[in-house]
Design goal:
Distance between the termini: 18 Å
Number of helices: 16
Strand order of the largest sheet: 3-2-1-4-7-13
Helix content: 40-55%
Largest sheet: 6 strands, mixed
Shape: globular
Order of helices and strands: EEEHHEEEHEHHEEEHHHHHHHEHEHHEH
Strand content: 15-25%
Radius of gyration: 20 Å
Structural class: alpha/beta
């Protein structure tokens, strides 16, 4: 199958689009990344998004307009990344507008039918609602794919995604996907980005490669105050987002940061990310296990250095395992879309808190019988190969 995976996360930097060849293999999947690109949101769309996201109140009318506008943005990204290829299906995560996992409430928007009509292919979308209906948090969902593609028969591993929020998947050697444990550790890039943008009047939007933080000094008192937040001390399963760690979180700690330079503030918030991740892992049997890193934060070499020191562990990019760090989540949703079409449960109850495994995703169909027929041929060929010991 040729699929397009679309991911737009809490950093609001645009749409990650991956064109991938995906084939069932050995109980897992063989993935070949054909193309990957991040398509930035227009300034007007980004501003409208920020105005409708916490800590702002937004409105039903604004969310409805954004649903259409985001659908058009995803459609353009999918059509562009899939140019010249016969795309079998698209899997779109959508843009999270609200997430309250502990109460089973989550909303991702972006009109799937706009994508379908632009690409002329079936679209899988709304991946979180089935898990919340089963009593889960609706997140994290990528751990299923982490376990399929990144686990090892020889060593324990920790898959770490550094987006706006940081999340970990704990992968015991030889783990089955349903047995993986995963949770959000807290902020990754979100607070660093917000602080840098606010302090520079939007002249800078993020700390490129951690250069500001590298030249600054951590304020121990400010860091200690941040780490008192109750989220860091809560037990998994747990998820978080902009509702908790958005700009309002910085506003709650405005006093100690007002006295810090741009560099010292960036250094302190970078250390918060490193410490909160390392502490979360240290509280599990995975202390010292290698960290396989993906997401936008993987481009911040100083953050990776601080992680390696704080976690006392080897840090590697997911690129070394065949999955480009920037593209991994888009690739992951392409895999989840295949599982949707295959009718297989793809949540991890131990990670989300759901009562049971469930098939994720809704479908905006186009020539669906033909698509499912091709899928059955692929799956059937894999099952035959496995029975004959060739997988």
């Amino acid at each position: 199958m040729i699929a397009v995976g679309l991911m737009s996360g809490t950093s609001l930097d645009g749409v990650d689009a991956a064109l991938v060849r995906i084939v069932p293999e050995g109980g897992s999947y063989a993935l070949e990344t054909l193309r990957f690109e991040t398509f930035s949101y227009s300034l007007a769309l980004e501003q409208e998004l920020r105005a409708s996201l916490p800590p702002n109140a937004g409105s039903v009318a604004a969310v409805a307009r954004l649903h259409r506008a985001l659908g058009d943005a995803y459609a353009r990204a999918a059509a562009q990344i899939g140019r010249g290829e016969a795309v079998d299906y698209v899997a779109s995560h959508g843009q999270t507008m609200w997430h309250d996992g502990s109460n089973g409430v989550t909303l991702q928007i972006g009109d799937a039918f706009s994508i379908r009509d632009a690409v002329n292919a079936t679209v899988c979308y709304d991946f979180r609602s089935a898990d919340t209906a089963a009593g889960g948090h609706g997140a994290p969902l990528v751990p299923y794919v982490d376990a399929l593609l990144l686990s090892s028969a020889r060593e324990d591993r920790v898959a770490l995604n550094l987006g706006g929020i940081a999340n970990v998947t704990l992968l015991p050697k030889g783990v089955r996907p349903v047995a993986a444990v995963a949770f959000d550790t807290g902020p990754a890039n979100m607070l660093i980005d917000a602080f840098v943008a606010g302090r520079t009047g939007q002249r800078l939007r993020y700390d490129e490669d951690g250069r500001l933080a590298r030249s600054g000094r951590v304020d121990g008192g400010a860091l200690e105050g941040l780490l008192r937040d109750e989220y860091f001390h809560a037990a998994p399963p747990k998820t978080t987002g902009r509702e908790h760690f958005g700009e309002q979180f910085l506003a709650q700690h405005a006093e100690p940061f007002a006295a810090l330079s741009l560099e010292d503030g960036a250094a302190t918030l970078t250390e918060l990310t490193a410490v909160s991740i390392a502490s979360a892992v240290a509280g599990t049997p995975f202390r010292g296990a290698p960290l396989i890193v993906s997401g936008g934060g993987a481009r911040n070499s100083f953050l990776l250095e601080r992680l390696a020191e704080r976690a006392a562990a080897r840090v590697e990019l997911s690129d070394a395992f065949g999955f480009p760090a920037a593209a991994k989540e888009a690739l992951a949703f392409a895999v989840l879309g295949y599982e949707t079409l295959r009718g297989r449960a793809a949540n991890v109850p131990a990670a989300t808190g759901a009562r049971r495994g469930v098939v994720l995703g809704a479908i905006a169909p186009l020539a669906l019988p033909e698509l499912l027929s091709r899928l059955r041929l692929e799956v059937g060929a894999e099952e035959i190969a496995a029975r004959h010991g060739r997988a």
